[in-house]
Amino acid sequence: SQQGEEDPQALSIQEGENATMNCSYKTSINNLQWYRQNSGRGLVHLILIRSNEREKHSGRLRVTLDTSKKSSSLLITASRAADTASYFCATDGAAGYSTLTFGKGTMLLVSP
Amino acid sequence: DGGITQSPKYLFRKEGQNVTLSCEQNLNHDAMYWYRQDPGQGLRLIYYSQIVNDFQKGDIAEGYSVSREKKESFPLTVTSAQKNPTAFYLCASSIFVSGIGNYGYTFGSGTRLTVV
Fold it and tell me: Is residue A2 over pLDDT 50?
Protein backbone atom coordinates (compact mmCIF):
# COMPACT_ATOMS: atom_id res chain seq x y z
CA SER A 1 0.00 0.00 0.00
CA GLN A 2 1.17 3.56 -0.61
CA GLN A 3 2.69 5.43 2.24
CA GLY A 4 3.58 9.00 3.03
CA GLU A 5 7.10 9.56 4.23
CA GLU A 6 7.74 12.68 6.26
CA ASP A 7 10.98 14.59 6.32
CA PRO A 8 12.67 15.52 8.58
CA GLN A 9 12.03 12.95 11.31
CA ALA A 10 12.60 15.63 13.94
CA LEU A 11 12.75 19.40 13.88
CA SER A 12 13.76 21.80 16.64
CA ILE A 13 13.16 25.55 16.32
CA GLN A 14 12.64 28.67 18.41
CA GLU A 15 9.31 30.37 18.98
CA GLY A 16 8.50 32.79 16.20
CA GLU A 17 10.35 30.83 13.54
CA ASN A 18 8.66 28.99 10.69
CA ALA A 19 8.56 25.20 10.58
CA THR A 20 8.46 23.27 7.31
CA MET A 21 7.75 19.56 7.05
CA ASN A 22 7.71 17.53 3.87
CA CYS A 23 5.85 14.43 2.79
CA SER A 24 6.48 12.17 -0.18
CA TYR A 25 4.19 9.40 -1.42
CA LYS A 26 4.23 6.75 -4.10
CA THR A 27 0.96 6.42 -6.02
CA SER A 28 -2.02 8.47 -7.23
CA ILE A 29 -4.16 10.06 -4.56
CA ASN A 30 -7.60 11.59 -4.08
CA ASN A 31 -6.34 13.86 -1.38
CA LEU A 32 -3.58 14.33 1.15
CA GLN A 33 -4.20 15.24 4.76
CA TRP A 34 -2.08 16.50 7.64
CA TYR A 35 -2.64 15.56 11.26
CA ARG A 36 -1.15 16.61 14.55
CA GLN A 37 -0.58 14.40 17.60
CA ASN A 38 0.31 15.62 21.04
CA SER A 39 2.25 13.12 23.12
CA GLY A 40 0.09 10.22 24.27
CA ARG A 41 -3.05 11.54 22.58
CA GLY A 42 -5.08 10.85 19.47
CA LEU A 43 -4.46 12.54 16.14
CA VAL A 44 -6.24 15.74 15.21
CA HIS A 45 -7.07 16.56 11.60
CA LEU A 46 -5.46 19.83 10.48
CA ILE A 47 -6.04 20.27 6.78
CA LEU A 48 -7.00 18.38 3.61
CA ILE A 49 -5.76 19.23 0.13
CA ARG A 50 -7.35 17.64 -2.89
CA SER A 51 -5.32 16.24 -5.76
CA ASN A 52 -6.41 19.08 -8.07
CA GLU A 53 -5.33 21.76 -5.59
CA ARG A 54 -1.83 23.17 -5.32
CA GLU A 55 -1.97 25.24 -2.15
CA LYS A 56 -4.24 25.65 0.82
CA HIS A 57 -4.21 27.87 3.90
CA SER A 58 -5.74 27.55 7.33
CA GLY A 59 -4.71 30.11 9.93
CA ARG A 60 -0.94 29.78 10.38
CA LEU A 61 -0.85 26.61 8.28
CA ARG A 62 0.04 26.50 4.63
CA VAL A 63 0.01 23.24 2.68
CA THR A 64 1.30 22.73 -0.83
CA LEU A 65 0.86 19.73 -3.08
CA ASP A 66 2.90 18.80 -6.14
CA THR A 67 1.33 15.72 -7.71
CA SER A 68 4.02 15.56 -10.42
CA LYS A 69 6.64 15.08 -7.71
CA LYS A 70 4.27 13.20 -5.41
CA SER A 71 5.14 15.49 -2.55
CA SER A 72 3.54 17.87 -0.11
CA SER A 73 4.79 20.35 2.45
CA LEU A 74 3.29 21.75 5.63
CA LEU A 75 4.44 25.18 6.74
CA ILE A 76 3.63 26.48 10.21
CA THR A 77 4.35 30.19 10.43
CA ALA A 78 5.32 32.06 13.58
CA SER A 79 5.60 28.87 15.63
CA ARG A 80 4.57 28.78 19.27
CA ALA A 81 5.61 26.45 22.06
CA ALA A 82 2.08 25.02 21.91
CA ASP A 83 2.81 23.78 18.36
CA THR A 84 5.17 21.17 19.84
CA ALA A 85 3.77 17.85 18.62
CA SER A 86 4.21 15.16 15.99
CA TYR A 87 2.84 15.89 12.55
CA PHE A 88 1.70 13.17 10.14
CA CYS A 89 0.73 13.24 6.51
CA ALA A 90 -1.85 10.75 5.29
CA THR A 91 -2.72 9.84 1.74
CA ASP A 92 -6.13 8.79 0.43
CA GLY A 93 -5.75 6.51 -2.57
CA ALA A 94 -7.39 7.27 -5.87
CA ALA A 95 -8.64 3.76 -6.61
CA GLY A 96 -12.24 3.67 -5.37
CA TYR A 97 -12.75 3.39 -1.63
CA SER A 98 -9.55 3.18 0.31
CA THR A 99 -8.30 3.91 3.77
CA LEU A 100 -5.83 6.59 4.76
CA THR A 101 -2.20 5.53 4.90
CA PHE A 102 -0.10 7.41 7.41
CA GLY A 103 3.58 8.22 7.38
CA LYS A 104 5.88 7.92 10.38
CA GLY A 105 5.62 11.57 11.29
CA THR A 106 7.82 14.56 12.02
CA MET A 107 8.41 15.43 15.66
CA LEU A 108 8.42 19.21 16.08
CA LEU A 109 9.87 20.88 19.16
CA VAL A 110 9.31 24.60 19.55
CA SER A 111 11.38 26.16 22.32
CA PRO A 112 10.30 29.36 24.09
CA ASP B 1 -20.58 17.20 21.93
CA GLY B 2 -19.98 14.79 19.06
CA GLY B 3 -16.91 12.68 19.32
CA ILE B 4 -15.27 9.31 19.57
CA THR B 5 -14.56 7.66 22.90
CA GLN B 6 -12.03 4.95 23.59
CA SER B 7 -11.84 3.01 26.81
CA PRO B 8 -10.00 2.16 28.88
CA LYS B 9 -7.13 4.63 28.60
CA TYR B 10 -4.66 2.10 30.02
CA LEU B 11 -4.98 -1.69 29.88
CA PHE B 12 -2.75 -4.43 31.17
CA ARG B 13 -2.88 -7.92 29.75
CA LYS B 14 -1.39 -11.11 31.05
CA GLU B 15 0.17 -13.61 28.70
CA GLY B 16 -2.49 -15.80 27.07
CA GLN B 17 -5.39 -13.46 27.78
CA ASN B 18 -7.80 -11.90 25.33
CA VAL B 19 -8.68 -8.27 25.95
CA THR B 20 -11.24 -6.03 24.31
CA LEU B 21 -10.78 -2.34 23.60
CA SER B 22 -13.89 -0.23 23.31
CA CYS B 23 -14.58 2.42 20.67
CA GLU B 24 -17.83 4.39 20.49
CA GLN B 25 -18.74 7.33 18.26
CA ASN B 26 -21.76 9.62 18.13
CA LEU B 27 -20.79 11.40 14.93
CA ASN B 28 -23.06 9.30 12.72
CA HIS B 29 -20.02 8.28 10.70
CA ASP B 30 -20.36 5.17 8.58
CA ALA B 31 -16.71 4.16 8.57
CA MET B 32 -14.60 3.17 11.56
CA TYR B 33 -10.98 2.10 11.87
CA TRP B 34 -8.45 0.62 14.26
CA TYR B 35 -4.79 1.59 14.07
CA ARG B 36 -1.81 0.45 16.05
CA GLN B 37 1.01 2.88 16.82
CA ASP B 38 4.49 1.79 17.85
CA PRO B 39 7.36 4.19 18.50
CA GLY B 40 8.98 5.28 15.25
CA GLN B 41 6.57 3.27 13.09
CA GLY B 42 3.68 5.64 12.55
CA LEU B 43 0.16 4.21 12.36
CA ARG B 44 -0.60 0.79 10.94
CA LEU B 45 -4.13 -0.26 10.02
CA ILE B 46 -5.53 -3.30 11.83
CA TYR B 47 -9.18 -3.49 10.71
CA TYR B 48 -11.76 -1.17 9.24
CA SER B 49 -15.48 -1.17 8.69
CA GLN B 50 -17.44 0.82 6.13
CA ILE B 51 -20.92 -0.26 7.24
CA VAL B 52 -22.63 -2.18 10.00
CA ASN B 53 -22.06 -5.94 9.97
CA ASP B 54 -19.16 -5.65 7.56
CA PHE B 55 -15.44 -5.21 8.15
CA GLN B 56 -12.15 -5.79 6.35
CA LYS B 57 -8.64 -6.70 7.40
CA GLY B 58 -5.99 -4.05 7.31
CA ASP B 59 -2.25 -4.48 7.02
CA ILE B 60 -1.68 -6.18 10.40
CA ALA B 61 -4.91 -8.03 11.25
CA GLU B 62 -3.31 -11.24 12.54
CA GLY B 63 -4.05 -11.78 16.22
CA TYR B 64 -6.91 -9.28 16.28
CA SER B 65 -10.66 -9.51 15.81
CA VAL B 66 -13.47 -6.95 15.52
CA SER B 67 -17.23 -6.72 15.31
CA ARG B 68 -19.57 -4.03 13.98
CA GLU B 69 -23.04 -4.80 15.27
CA LYS B 70 -24.01 -1.16 15.70
CA LYS B 71 -23.05 1.92 13.73
CA GLU B 72 -21.77 3.59 16.88
CA SER B 73 -19.52 0.82 18.14
CA PHE B 74 -16.43 -0.94 16.80
CA PRO B 75 -14.70 -2.96 19.55
CA LEU B 76 -11.29 -4.52 18.99
CA THR B 77 -10.25 -7.79 20.64
CA VAL B 78 -6.56 -8.45 21.03
CA THR B 79 -6.28 -12.22 21.19
CA SER B 80 -3.60 -14.41 22.70
CA ALA B 81 -2.43 -15.10 19.14
CA GLN B 82 -1.06 -11.56 18.94
CA LYS B 83 2.53 -12.13 20.04
CA ASN B 84 3.56 -8.54 20.56
CA PRO B 85 0.46 -6.62 21.62
CA THR B 86 2.13 -3.88 23.66
CA ALA B 87 1.32 -0.69 21.75
CA PHE B 88 -0.87 2.40 21.58
CA TYR B 89 -4.20 1.65 19.89
CA LEU B 90 -6.17 4.34 18.11
CA CYS B 91 -9.74 4.18 16.87
CA ALA B 92 -11.04 6.59 14.24
CA SER B 93 -14.16 7.28 12.25
CA SER B 94 -14.88 9.16 9.05
CA ILE B 95 -17.26 10.01 6.28
CA PHE B 96 -16.62 9.39 2.62
CA VAL B 97 -17.43 12.35 0.39
CA SER B 98 -17.96 11.74 -3.30
CA GLY B 99 -15.39 13.66 -5.31
CA ILE B 100 -13.11 14.16 -2.33
CA GLY B 101 -12.65 10.71 -0.89
CA ASN B 102 -12.03 10.02 2.76
CA TYR B 103 -12.68 13.23 4.63
CA GLY B 104 -10.75 14.00 7.81
CA TYR B 105 -10.65 11.18 10.31
CA THR B 106 -11.78 11.85 13.86
CA PHE B 107 -9.62 9.98 16.34
CA GLY B 108 -10.24 8.83 19.86
CA SER B 109 -7.66 9.55 22.56
CA GLY B 110 -6.24 6.04 22.44
CA THR B 111 -5.74 2.98 24.63
CA ARG B 112 -2.28 2.04 25.79
CA LEU B 113 -2.04 -1.73 26.11
CA THR B 114 0.79 -3.33 28.04
CA VAL B 115 1.54 -7.02 28.46
CA VAL B 116 2.61 -7.90 31.99
Answer: no
